[in-house]
Amino acid sequence: MEIIQWFEAIDKNIFTLIHSDGALPVIDSVMKGLRNAFTWVPLYAFILYWILRHGKKYAWQFILLSLVTFAITDFVSASILKPAFSRIRPCYDPELQDIIRELVACGGQNSFPSSHASNHFGLAAFWFYSIYLIKGKNWHWLWIWALIIGYAQVYVGKHYPIDIIGGGLFGYVVGTFSAIIFERWLFPQPSFVSRSLPDFS
């Protein structure tokens, strides 16, 4: 129990550093925009254009598994994991009310894991591995994209850092397995994704 309390104390301290002590009002609106789905419509349009342009024969499977990945990460994180852990959001925590800046509406009470982190790390993992399979390109910027969105969630006061880490790990697992399905479905020989995972046989 003491270890859990120790981790929670560190988590709250880092949250306070990001959300309050280290906040810059000049970037508040930017951070709010980063977590808005409409902000990333051009990116999603680019991904769609790219797959139709450079991987047309894999396009419908790529799009389908992207949607499936998002559906799984969103549903499981929001409807199963959050109620199971029942950790209250920092914006509802009585201990933090003096430092909460109320940049966005608090929303539902459950905080762990972050659905934003689950969804975006899930898509980042699936896209990263699948695009490598299709074209041999390493789009490392996808991880930065997902991380920035996760950071924005902490900055605006919606989540603790551990919520982002937990959501990110869950999303990564789902996205990676989606990429394995994509690989086994369309590529006859095990390639990049399968070789990147540990051998448990």
Walk me through the structure.
There is one protein chain. This protein is mostly helical. The protein has one domain. Helices cover 67% and strands 0% of the residues. It contains 8 helices and no strands. Helix 2 crosses helix 6, helix 5 runs antiparallel to helix 6 and helix 5 packs parallel to helix 7. The protein starts with a helix and ends in a 5-residue tail after the last helix.
SSE inventory with pairings:
Elements: H1 2-21, H2 28-34, H3 41-54, H4 59-85, H5 115-135, H6 141-155, H7 161-186, H8 192-196
Shape call: elongated
Low-confidence stretches: none
The percent range for helix content is: 55-70%
Instruction: From the alpha carbons, calculate the radius of gyration and give it in angstroms.
Output: 18 Å
Q: Name the beta content range.
A: under 5%
Number of helices: 8
Give me the count of strands. Answer: 0
Number of domains: 1
